[in-house]
Fold:
Amino acid sequence: MSMEVNGQRVLTSIQTLGKIGAIDGGGVCRLALTDADFEGRQKVIEWMKELGLEIRVDSIGNVVGRYLGCDPELPAIMMGSHIDTVRTGGLLDGNLGVLAGLEIVRCFVEADFRPERSIEVGFFTNEEGSRFSPDMMGSLVYMGKLALGDALAVRDADGISVAEELERLGLVGDAAVPGVLPHCFLELHIEQGPVLDKEGCAVGAVHSVQGISWQKLRIAGQSNHAGTTPMSMRRDAGLAAFRIASGVRELVTQLGGDMVGTVGHITLGPNLINVVPNHVEMTVDLRSPVSSQLQEAEVLFEALFRTICAEENVEVERERLVQLDPVEFDLELVERIEMAAKNRGLRCRRMVSGAGHDAQIFAEAVPAGMIFVPSIGGISHNVTESTADADVVAGCQLLLDIVLELASVSSASPDKK
Ligand SMILES: [Zn+2]
Structure:
């Protein structure tokens, strides 16, 4: 059986959602649990209602719409992603996976097609983690990997908690967490990196996701007069931070492979031209698709910052923010994506995801798969993030082809493991 997505309809829905929280330069800012995020949610829920989906909302604000299959007892095929964005987000990151899911349901509704299995489209709260840490918070709670109470207690930089914002916006639903396990989970997403674009591939069949380690250091030294304090008598927290940042680059380069490391946030106190800094808060983001390499990087990083802080005679405190092991996706789904791409005449390559995604949270418990489409110039988390219309539509079509295969029980085998 074959069905065609309505490309123009998908592209229009992306533009429509992108108007909510729109910012200069063509991007969008819908940080998790802000008024703009709320408005985006309302729009998507309105579309779900138009399609007659059964909607459930859980206590962390995850929303799942269900298109009932012939056998409602069978676990559903779930498609999903997120609609929150970073402060300088584009229109596609996350949104594409949710809107593609809705387009597939629209095709089913239009064709009056009832698959054996129910089809679900979900969006998960605070995937980006820009406002509340950790990222992928909603899917972690959905899958029982983060306690609801711990997630609700997280506060943003202004001291506002997840619980307070959910309450204020009326986003607390009554669906239980952990949520109902689907038959399998599929996520269409932009690559957010340059590989597909550079290699001229239309599709990426993602076989694994890099492991992530996020840590925060608080360094305490002594603030003092920049003119009168001899260099040898300083306890300069800023200098320690800069040495650590530069050390991270060396450490990561030495480890090689696909290892990457970033110091993306540093605040200095008192942050004045003529005062030796006495306080630093800094973050480190380490990633690798290889578990043992990521562990080695963490050990080396700890040795690095402890040594430097001892040398600079400053105190250091480390807080672990996120620690996610590398994830492997279901090989059968990877092969299905490759086969579906071949059938549509699309160039496809297997690849690692450098970014974290909701699908990886599902991958341990149920077969999960991800389809990547190219990001022009590899740009993402940026207002200029974009993907050629044809690639967006091709990605949706592949998702539809695969869901059609999986939704009829006879051809669907992922849960027989
Ligand atoms: Zn995303």
Remarks:
- The CA atoms of residues 5 and 359 lie 22 Å apart.
- The chain has a mean pLDDT of 96.
- The first helix runs from residue 7 to 18.
- The radius of gyration is 23 Å.
